[in-house]
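Hi there,

I know you've been waiting on this one. I reran it after we fixed the sequence typo, so this is the corrected version. Both the input and the resulting structure follow.
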Amino acid sequence: MSREDYLRLLDMRGDHSVPRISYLGGEIEIMSPSRTHEAIKSLIGRLLETYCLEREIPSSIYDF
């Protein structure tokens, strides 16, 4: 598919984050993560943030 097709899909989706749409080398991938996936992603993010806070490791551009 063309990059223009990809951009049209993004326009149709609007400001929503789901489904996730990516484009590389003429291929469009449409993905809809499950609720379990999102919950695990959030948990890992919180664990990593807590680890960095406890170890005083900068974890974002705002910590530098």
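Quick highlight: The chain has two helices and two strands.

Best,
R. S.
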